[in-house]
Structure formats: structure tokens, C-alpha cells
Amino acid sequence: MTGAAHPTLIVGGGIGGLTTALALAARGRPVHVLEKAAAFGEIGAGLQLAPNAMHVLDRLGLLPEIAKHAVYPSRLVWMDALAGEPITAVDLGAAFRARYGQPYIVMHRSDLLAVLLAACQAEKLIALEADRAVVAVEDLGERARARGADGTAYDTELLIAADGLWSSVRGAIVDDQPIGSAYVAYRGTLPIERMSSHAGLDNVVMWVGPDMHFVQYPVRRGELYNQVAVFRSPRYRPGHSDGRDDWGTVEEFDAHYAQTCDYVQGCARLMARDKRWPMYDRAPIAAWVRNRIVLMGDAAHPMLQYAAQGACQAIEDALCLADRIAATPADLPRALASYQAARAPRTARVQRTARDIGDFFHLAGAAASARNATMRRRAETDYAPLDWLYGHKA
Ligand SMILES: Cc1cc2nc3c(=O)[nH]c(=O)nc-3n(C[C@H](O)[C@H](O)[C@H](O)COP(=O)(O)OP(=O)(O)OC[C@H]3O[C@@H](n4cnc5c(N)ncnc54)[C@H](O)[C@@H]3O)c2cc1C
Question: How far lies 335's CA from each of 57, 75, 292, 322, 338, in Å?
Fold first, then answer.
């Protein structure tokens, strides 16, 4: 069974896939999105969006809708999770906005997905198909073909893999696997009334400690409070634990957080324990393209979440890809090569930085004390080290 030929097929309707659909449609290109879940939606909790992503969302005209759901935090605060004391902060106020031209926001993932989905549904050039898992792709030279589980084949001029960390399409370009980090996250939201304040409920607060960190911030106009508890599992064994659920357990969570200050322990106790997210990334790759198949988002550059940039980078990819295609619409190979050249080095740097940030968060003993002493000397408006990341305009 062969479906109609599509100018552009996007495999995966997450944040990356839907943003790409909007960016392409805004430049007049029809798009068909295939999503394996029964409905378009997001699980998980909060999302931080830095100015580099906000520029793209602004270019796509989405900021008025996003503003209805977002929170604009005052500061990013680093706290010592054992001592309960401040380490440093980044002021997100007027000087930050003036420097980067956009604010730093936090919001519920499902709210962002709902904004993207509504915009896609309002766009005639975008067709959305849920409950459509792609089980195979074929490189046909000047075309590509995706095959659904029921055998339906979708032929296309351009197949964009936006199918995330566990991308099956990526196998058409590179033979690699996600790399387990031994860290696991528990996350969820609570009504904000249930929280007591320590470092400011309107801030993004990052508690750091030995082999752990704990992130807190408000979402959904400040009605909900998002918490992410991350720790290293002592039971994780590289190559043996992947795909198993006998590591990063609730017992390990409680045992690891027993060393933290009373406030962190109290907040962590409020969290649901029914689902855990093992943390994986992959090594950066330089080649994202094979003829008419191209990678984007986590399918191209999955990273540990420690820089809070995975979705931001997917959003940057989306606009870059659409702009390059619009620049040479009759020459897709050139457009794809130009997209890859623009995006691969930058996202590789973010992937590596995310790992480094994790190592820095998770220090213990004398190394942690030295880190804290160094960080305490920086000014809250010392933005220069952030310029390469937040100052990027796609
Ligand atoms: C704990 C945690 C916190 C994070 N916090 C942040 C943050 O604050 N800021 C930030 O920028 N990033 C953050 N990230 C990273 C961010 O979540 C990801 O980078 C982002 O979701 C990637 O978007 P994507 O669309 O590329 O992939 P995904 O969100 O994984 O979407 C992929 C989509 O493809 C679909 N799919 C998969 N396979 C198929 C198939 N075969 N056929 C059809 N459809 C398929 C999936 O169902 C899904 O809808 C965080 C990640 C974690 C784990």
C-alpha cells in the first residue's frame, strides 16, 4: 500500500517536529507529520526556554499564545543541597532581557505542545496524523520512503527525522545507540500552594550536591510547581542496566536524598514516585543527512538535560532547516548540507557542555567546596559566559 507522495514528511510530532512543521509551512512548504502516540501531546513536567529558543518562537508568531501559560522567573539560583545555602545566581531581569532581546521563561511542556499543536491545526499546509508509528525508512536517492506498522508507505521528497532520543530513523544515517549516564530523574508538578518558599518560588532553583541535583520552578502561570530530582544510581551497570527498571529505584532515590538539607528532603518527599526517567545522550555526530533523509532535535543531538537546552536546540534546528530550504528550494541537497554545517558544530558544543555541567553539579567534598567558592565570586549579571548559548539568533 503506497500513500500519496508528500513534499515533506516529518516523523515525530514532539516539540521539534511540530516547530519544524510550522517553520516550513510559514515558508509555503506543505508538511505531513506522523506521530506514533495515539494523540499529539507531551508527558513530563516543566520546560525552561532560554532566549535562543524564544527568538525562534517569536519569529513564528507564537509568543502571545505562549505568554498565556508561561512564567517569567526573576533569577536562576544555585543552592548547595547539603548546606541549604546559596552559591550563586543569574539575574534574569531587565539587563538580561536587554542583552539577549528575549526573556528566559518556564512553562509546562504540555502547554507548549498545545500552543504548537493549535498553530499547526490552524495551518492549511500542515497535515497531522497521530497513531502512526514509522517502522522503517528507505533511502531512494532523490526520494525517501517511510513505512507505517500496517504497511502503508509514504513517499516523500524530504524525510525529517524528529523522532527523539530513541530515533529509529537515525539508523539510516549512523549506527550508534543512546549512552546511559547512570543518572535517573523523577519529576512532576504540584499545586504551588503546597510548597513553602526557601530560595523564592518565582525563581528557577537548582540545588546541587554529590551525584545529585534537584530543580524547582513554577509553571502554568504560577499555579503549579515543577520539581525534578536527579541522582546517580549505584546499581547502574554500563551495558547491562539499559532497558531494565531495577536501577534508579524509589529506595535509591530516598537513600540518596537522605544526605540533603531538610528543605530539599521535604520537597522531594512530596513528589510522585510512579515514573522515572533514565538519562541518556549520544555522542555528537557530524553527518545528519543521507540524500533526502535529515535529522533534527533529539534524533540528531540528544543531550543530558543539565543545560536545559534539548528542546531549545530542537527549536533552533527547526527554523534553521526551514530557512535553508527556503533559500534554495530547488536544490534540497544544498539546503540540507547548509543546515548540517550550521547546526552540527553548535549542537555538539551544547551536548558536550551539558555533560560538563553535570560533572560540575555533581561534585563532592573538597571539589564541591572549591566550586562553591569560585561561583560565589561571580556577579549575578556576569552574562559573558552565557553569550554563545543564549545570544544565538537563528
Ligand atoms: C528531565 C528532563 C528535563 C528537560 N528539561 C529541558 C528544559 O528545561 N529545556 C529544554 O530545552 N530541554 C529540556 N529537556 C530536553 C527536551 O525534553 C528534549 O530535548 C526535547 O523534548 C526534544 O524534542 P524532540 O521533538 O526532538 O524529541 P521528543 O520530544 O522525544 O519527540 C519525539 C516525538 O517523536 C515520536 N516518535 C518517536 N518514534 C516515532 C516513530 N517511529 N514514528 C512516529 N513518531 C515517533 C514520539 O512519540 C515523540 O512525540 C529535558 C529533558 C529531560 C529528560
Answer: 22, 39, 11, 9, 5
Beta partners for residue 46, in sequence order: 108
State the pTM of this model.
0.97
Residue 237 Cα distances to 110, 180, 242, 252, 358, angstroms: 33, 9, 8, 15, 19
Lay out the sheet containing 277-281: strands in order across.
86-91, 75-80, 204-209, 212-219, 224-232, 179-191, 277-281
The one-letter code for the residue type at 141 is G
- Counting Cα atoms < 13 Å in the Cβ hemisphere of 164 gives 13
Which are the contacts of 373, defined by CB distance < 8 A and separation ≥ 6? Answer: none
Q: Does domain 180-281+361-377 have CATH number 3.30.9.30?
A: yes
- Which letter does DSSP use for residue 305 in this model? G
What residues have CB less than 8 Å from 14, skipping those under 6 apart?
Answer: 35, 42, 113, 162, 164, 297, 298, 314
- Model confidence over 187-223: pLDDT tens digits? 999 999 999 887 788 999 999 999 999 999 999 999 9
Best of 9, 32, 35 for a ligand 1 pocket test (most atoms within 8 Å of beta carbon): 35
Active-site option among 217, 280, 339, 390: 217
- CB atoms near residue 328 (< 10 Å): 14
The model's pLDDT over 72-125, given as tens digits with 9 standing for 90+, comes to: 999 999 999 999 999 999 999 999 999 999 999 999 999 999 999 999 999 999
CB of 184 within 8 A of CB of 248?
yes
DSSP, collapsed to helix, strand or coil, labels residue 257 as helix
The rounded Å distance from CA 166 to ligand 1 centre is 10
Q: Which of 1, 6, 24 is nearest to 324 (CA)?
A: 24
d(CA 58, CA 394): 11
What's the CA gap between 200 and 263, in Å, rounded? 13
Residue with cell 532497558: 243
Compute the distance from residue 311 Cα to the ligand 1 centre, in Å.
7
